[in-house]
Amino acid sequence: MRILIVKTSSLGDVIHNLPVVSDIRRHFPDATVDWCVEDSFAAIPRLHPGVGKVIPVAVRRWRKNLFKAQVWREIAEFRRDLQAMAYDAVVDTQGLLKSALMARQAQGPTSGYDAHSAREPMAARFYDRTFGVSRELHAVVRNRRLAAAALGYAADGEPDYGIQAAPAGFGWLPHRPYVVFLTATSRDDKLWPEADWLALGHQLNSQGISAVLPGGNPVERERASRLAAGIPGAVAAPAMNIPDLAALLAGGRAAVGVDTGLTHLAVALKVPTIALYTATDPGLTGVLGVGFHCNLGGKDQIPSPAAVLAELQSALG
Asked: 178-182 and 254-257 as β-strands: parallel, antiparallel, unpaired?
């Protein structure tokens, strides 16, 4: 059996879909599971040993450069990759019009959410089979239930993200235990106040634990450097790719992160994780997994450093 999963973005959504691969491989051990994903997130499915071919797509970049010949060559190459294999099933867990159209181009019967369940109801018109999955369920549960309904098994048990990473041996790491501070997110209203990061970092330093602060773009790395300068023993990480970030997280005692995909990556790696929410409700998209993890805050609710530290003490044992 050969199955294609279409889940293109965003980083957190792609991570939420990893348990689908584990479910499929558990019920169909000989199945080959390919995955269509945005090229900027392609490193995530590659972390899962159950994923076969990763088919990258670049809709975000292409739509900004539609008048360039190179873009149309890339689109043609993507279509060839998508149609190179015949699939027994194509399952779109994204539920968007763009993802439904991608699934439709693959060779095989397509399945997706029905019009009441999909994020964009129009997408349901392009599937051969549709299934109702409550939108009141957590995103991980929705993904698992859709794939289970499409492929004929029960999505039972705790979610298994199926990924591992060897702890990092980077020369710039502190020479004592560390907690990863994931301070960057896509919206300013999702940020945790810098004064609170500083307070938490000082408390951890007094316990002999360093803070390590990665950042993606220059603005995020500047924030990380500014915070690290104000926390004794803290280190601002250099620019890192996703596999290196996974290794950094795997070597930490714990992770504290705002509403960002990397916080979900920490949970997927079974790193004790405290997720901080200030502008969104974590009910349907908060961190979910096995091992120690905790969602703090919510819409217009800012967790205090004391509350975070109390949860961290439990995580650190």
From this structure: parallel
Task: Give residue-wise pLDDT tens across range 29-58.
Answer: 999 999 999 999 999 999 999 999 999 999
Domain with 273 in it:
178-316
Residue 169 included in any domain: no
User: Would the CA dihedral through 260, 262, 265, 270 be positive or negative?
Assistant: negative
For residue range 12-25, list pLDDT tens digits in order. 999 999 999 999 99
Average pLDDT over residues 113-126: 98
Tokens 């714990």: give the residue.
254
Other beta carbons within 10 angstroms of residue 170's beta carbon come to 15
Q: Give the total number of structural domains in the chain.
A: 2
